[in-house]
Amino acid sequence: METLSLPGLDALGWSLRAGTVAISIHHTVTMAASEDREEERDHVHVIDNYHQSLGWGGIGYHVLVFPSGRLYQSHANNRIPRAGVAHRNGEIVHLAFVGDFTATQPTAAAIAGAREAIALLRQEYGDIPLMAHREVATPDYPTACPGDNYRAWIGQLEEGLMPTREDPFYAGGPTLGDIHDWAARGDWLTKVLSSQLDDSQIPLMLIRQLQTEVANLWGDVEFIKQRLAAIKEALG
Ligand SMILES: [Zn+2]
Question: Which residues of 147-156 are buried (b: 16+ CB within 10 A; e: fewer)?
């Protein structure tokens, strides 16, 4: 990770972010001219200049990952707020994939780099969920970011959570893979709501994934939160 020293919303007088509830995933809809390190660094500055011109006080992302997998941090202090999600920059840290993923997916190197960045951010802020920008956007600032195709790849950022059948928490219940399969078929929510997913069968490791899936189903979020609370209580 290369650390730069770019202004953020602090340049506009905002104070440091006091709490951090999620890592928001973005795409920049820009492309560096090559995978050369100098070119990548220059590209970060291009985005920084552009976002300053929009009045955002500096680049709107804390960490950027390029197709090469290389990571660039806007500033050593990730608590400097950045204008990534309107109205929510006081509580969210921003990770951006450089590129346009409207119709394509990030490279395997970029996914690996992003996973490294996520691990570092979670060391800093605890076990916070990943949220696509569009999932945390407020209704007055809707966006397609990080691209209409994001569900096809965003799950790869969490694959390390995949429980195995040897997992001590696995008690014959569904695997994370099962849940992803159901989600892909659209009946994941139905199964949860109809209690075909028995609370006692859900491994502890799945709770964070469930929280992420819940966030994806924003319209039902209040109902599912209650359900998660019940699951957590059942697991003691
Ligand atoms: Zn975004």
Answer: beebeebbbe
